[in-house]
């Protein structure tokens, strides 16, 4: 262990594993350690089901009706992948896709006045949707055509909108869209968690809606993908990538001390030995004196023996409850997957509800979502503190990831990865460069 590394990584959450893989591909000597005996850290998938019961202190063992414990791989943090999003690009470029199989999520739904509706994201769906009246549909169709054609470098497509100055509120007003349509556009298509975006320049929102539409166009049913056997497969895939490029992995390693000299990282002490390094990547749990709490997220894992009502018996779906619909500041999310994804016993469904905590009674906050899932056979409730680094790492060379948020996609996680990469290397993350480095090892024909 008394060796010198370019980078030591602590924790096997997805963020840490992707950065470990990227740094290994870049030719860095990487040592990756975790105090746990399994991959994934906070973003693990728990198997067998008995382990989930133990983790949440549920007395007894799962009933026989739950099937074999080994048939379950239950995510602790629910997220889907945008088919055209940043994580899929990282998976394709690094060829981690060779270790994984994905399924398309069958539908995306939005909550309005106590009921759920399929999110219309094509012109045909918009015209058929019962979410809007006839005249509203026409206006929404015009808006979608405007977004699809929008190119900030082509003045003809802008229709008088300045992408860097016109706010999204003004764009909605231009197309005379009503509050319910604004709700599902901002929260179910652009995937914002709050309404703060309304008074910001419209370019980011337009790009988010384009990402949704382009992701949807790839597979048709929804813009989301999910890996068979659970999200825990993702960090393991990137761990394999790191190993191919010479990265060293050690699970079950207690971390005794982060060793600093003159305010800068020099190594990590484990079991009496020190591994030296120039840079350290870790999740917040390893360096609590370098992070600050920024809120809490409640997540409730629900095991059911039926699909969610009014989703056309989908084996998988997402439901977004926009904050306006339930008098909140943050959206509530429901991710549902099932036995069809090898994460549950035959005929069983797993729905995970999540939101940012706003009151002293978080379970009451998510009641509108839980009501949609009834009856539930077993639920597992967790409330997690959210942390962000107080130290950007430029002096200490310690680079800390942010806690996983309540969103149901990985775009914010990828933004964090790119931000840490830039702080570590001084350059922007370059997808094309990653592709070139990977081809040097695997050749172009992979």
Give a structural overview:
The chain folds into three domains: 4-42 and 232-292 and 387-442, FAD/NAD(P)-binding domain; 57-106 and 223-227 and 295-386, Guanine Nucleotide Dissociation Inhibitor, domain 2 (2-Layer Sandwich); 120-219, Guanine Nucleotide Dissociation Inhibitor, domain 1. The protein has 446 residues and is α/β, with parallel strands linked by helices. It is globular. The chain has helices at residues 14-25, 49-55, 86-94, 123-128, 134-149, 168-174, 179-189, 203-219, 233-244, 362-365, 367-373, 411-425, 431-442; strands spanning 4-10, 30-33, 45-46, 74-75, 81-82, 102-104, 108-112, 115-118, 224-227, 248-250, 257-261, 264-270, 273-282, 291-304, 317-321, 332-338, 349-356, 378-389, 398-400.
What's the layout of helices and strands?
Layout: E1 4-10, H1 14-25, E2 30-33, E3 45-46, H2 49-55, E4 74-75, E5 81-82, H3 86-94, E6 102-104, E7 108-112, E8 115-118, H4 123-128, H5 134-149, H6 168-174, H7 179-189, H8 203-219, E9 224-227, H9 233-244, E10 248-250, E11 257-261, E12 264-270, E13 273-282, E14 291-304, E15 317-321, E16 332-338, E17 349-356, H10 362-365, H11 367-373, E18 378-389, E19 398-400, H12 411-425, H13 431-442
Parallel strand pairs: 1-2, 1-13, 2-10, 7-15, 13-19
Antiparallel strand pairs: 3-4, 5-9, 6-9, 7-8, 11-12, 12-13, 14-17, 14-18, 15-16, 16-17
